[in-house]
Amino acid sequence: MLPHLAPSQPVFPETESEPAATPQRAFLTDDNVAVLRFAAQALASGMAAALIVLTEIRGGAARPLGAQMAVREDGLYCGFVSGGCVEAAAAWEGLEAIKSGADRTVIYGEGSPWFDIVLPCGGGITLSIHPLRSARPLLAVLSALERRHAPALRYRPRTQTLDVDAPDKETGWQEEEFVIRYRPATRVIIFGRSVEAEMTAKLAETAGYDVHIDDGSRLRTLSGLIDAYTAVIFLWHDLDRELPLLSAALAAAPFYIGALGSRRTHEKRIRALTERGFQPDEIAQIKAPIGIFPQARDASSLALSVLADVAAARGQRSS
Predict the structure, then answer these.
(1) What are the C-alpha distances in Å from 48 to residues 77, 133, 305?
(2) pLDDT, tens digit, for every residue of 90-108?
(3) Among 152, 143, 207, 144, which residue's Cα sits nearest to residue 182?
(4) Which end of the chain has fewer surrounding CB within 10 Å, N or C?
(5) Of 68, 58, 1, nearest to 31 (Cα)?
């Protein structure tokens, strides 16, 4: 347990301190951006709210550091900080924090000094609970994400404050401050007009990605959408048609480029790109054949293979 995370309240407070509201889940999400939006909307409507953040993990845990929940004064909450086993209790603690007006720290599982909920993973987690005094930092983060920037929040337990931080810091403790990094939604640009392209787009939308699909007629427009949080997917069987778009994608530096075709097709692609002046290290950025498992012959299997590859590549990026 970190020295600046000394618990301020027991996990199960006295009966007379129970808040009037009963925690109830508003909706299911583990998206931190959706959690911030829920909290900001609560404050905008005149309701008090608290932000609950996973700030320490001991052993195994179902959620990553920085996972969040938000709870309103009427008991409605959203988000996850575990696999679902402590969320109602954490929401209750959030209501107590709102009632008292003071931040608090709660420990579950390993490291807890009290009789506690035992986490199925066998580890322990620490939650920092902050009654929100202003929607400004939340709105600043949401605005930055809309502009495809990667903002951060800085939480200071000693002063019980929450501020927007520089975007170059990763989630975790920075001395006595906890930084929460946010990244824009993964954007997926799919080139191709086929059943494979349509299925991949449909599955990507279900996963919450920002999806754009085109037959290549809007090259200039779509090239302007490519950033470091974008995956570009080529699902054509026409190498000549693909090359101008692939060249543009390589120049725009997305985090993922994948192209359909056999290894023999990719060898032709490499030769063509080399003739266009691209260097071996640039060409090596292209995942071809695309996907995580070879020889996906039907549209559904190909879509799963491609998007799993995109998700894996996104997870490996710290930025």
Answers:
(1) 12, 8, 44
(2) 999 999 999 999 999 999 8
(3) 152
(4) C
(5) 68
